């Protein structure tokens, strides 16, 4: 295989895997995500501050993955990134368009995103319901992403992906943050499970490394978490000057 063809091949399947990392939850029945402490996780990769585990899922040819990382940025910076509906383009590998839409608030909102796919694969788009909660006693923040594919009409130029389930857990540790990202996806189309499972490692590593870099940029500094009297997270706001 020539270098040019090898590069095109890698880009095609990185595009496919980028789709898997960001695709939403199916409209129909979805098997619950495995817990972070469940038996059966197998360590597949350890790169710098990122560790990737995978686990077979009953009734599925596609494995779930768990990514764990110690990020050298405070949780306030990370949440400033995560509440920005356009930040997908900054850190999620192959995300080329993202914006909020429809009704919602900090705790329960919607976003539309597009994943770039190399020719001849059609670009994928997806619709996410994003729910966020936090506990002041522990400082932990959890975000869950699930699909609402019928919230927006499909476009003929894009393929709607409708099966995935995602959970982000952010755990503060002084000026650092531990991230645990768990996801299981059933992609649209005839993608062989063995291929997807062999490629499921690289994209979360790239995305997490990018997230740490983006959260360190000036535009995401100077934010604070707002806690309610009940100890629940109410929002993320710029620190008053």
TrEMBL record:
It comes from the Bacteria. Residues 26-220 form the START domain. Keywords: Signal. InterPro entries: START-like_dom_sf, START_dom_prot, START_lipid-bd_dom, START_lipid_transfer. Pfam families: START. Residues 1-27 form the signal peptide. This is START domain-containing protein. It comes from Marinobacter daepoensis.
